[in-house]
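Researcher: Re-running this chain for the archive, since the previous output was lost when a drive failed. Same request as before.
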Amino acid sequence: MKRISVAMLMIVGLLFVTSCSEDNEETTLTLSKKSVTFKSDGGEQSIMVTSNEDWKVEGDSWIETKKQEKELILKVAPNKTLETLTGEVKVTAGGLVEVVKVTQEALSMDFPLTTFGATYEEIIKQEKERGFAVKEKKEVRQLWVSKRAGSLDLQFIYYFDKEGKFQLVESQFPNQNILTEQVALFVSKYKLAENEVSSSEKTVRFFSNEKYSLSTYAVGNKYGVVMGLYNETNNSWTRQTLLKDSVTDIWMPTLGRYAPQITMEVFEYSQGHTLNEELTKKDKGVFVFNTGNPKFPSVKYWFDVENKSFLEESAIFVDSNNRPSPAEIDAWLLKLGFKQTILVDKNQNVLYFHKKNKCAAVVEMNKPRNNSNTFEPKIQFFFGDLEDKLPAENIQMPMPILSFNKFTMEQVVEQYKKESYFVSSAPHDYGILIKTNSPDFGGILLMEDGGKYAMAFLLADTKQVINSPEIPENLIKNGFEEKKLGQIPTFVNKEKGVMAQIDITGAFGSYSVAFSKNE
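Model: Regenerated structure tokens:
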């Protein structure tokens, strides 16, 4: 019995040792990969997991995980952002943890070029290098480029100004969903902020930063993005604001200098205005929009006659019973950079001119002389250089010698020779002509009476010079005072006993300022 007990104890001991050895076996966990990278269009990848225990997996929310026997399946959706995504998946078994680093590439997106100011040739070269097909439409100052990118057909329209410089680009899309996705990408890439002037219906949305201006449109079956440099001046192609008058609420229609039709459409749709089908004549390049505002019921645009592609004029119509006063219009246009001129149209409506932009405005508030019953007051803006019709702003005005009836002609010529403006003297049918170095008054005609120097005519070279406001200013600086003595502007210097008359009509034979003894 004793031998049996010892044997039994030995067997039990062996079993105990074997059991303890199995309980103390170490956990193992091995992964075939510890990092994976996905393309931007997503997909799935597998990792082999080897472990002597059951394993679990958890990961970031954008990474879908699935256990399939000894295989871990990772799946990600397309990355529709311009940012590279990074995350991780943890695999655990017992007390062991293995981490898989997951990266997904950013969306690779062909945005339109933003090399504004480039030439046709420069844009063509850049786009062909990017694999785009290019179609030139130089007669309307456009380039159309296209390319298949994955499941998306990209199409950009580049618009150029009259000088052949790239100013605006439009991207067109097939539907609202793609437009929404693309707008998000534009906003992300260029770090744009949405502006408050976006239309309430969201048919047009405006975005901008200090450099770029972006407009999006979703009108009818047309969807797109229009982009250019940020510019809120009145002749800008990308202006988003109304330039509204705080007193009268009148605003300025869009007037991008020779801009394409898309700029007009985006601007008008953003205000909720509707196209007047009856009055619009697309075949003639004329467009009319109803505003829904009783004070300013409609706006009208005229494009070039030949191509119907380049904006030349725009107008805002005014209710005849709510016409702003001349002073209110003057103040508003002055803020916009327009100055009142001496020019009027056939109905005595005043013309304003913006010198820098070479743009004019005619304030048509006077009823036509034919007493037309169809008269509609309006302010019409158009491109044109009126400088050759306007008074010169800065002139060089040589003052004649004013010692009349004291010297002979020979004596006074000797005095003129000492003047800084003197060039030469020569006999003239009416006396002696002093040639000057002034670019505005090329000569001074000296006339005598009774053998004495009696009159001097300062001869203006152009009508613009004789109408210059600097002439009366210079006379006043030289001791003259204006006198209301008739239709000819007259100034008198009492101290010297001399008067000066500005002949703006040529009544004395030429545009001139006539100086003589005060009678």
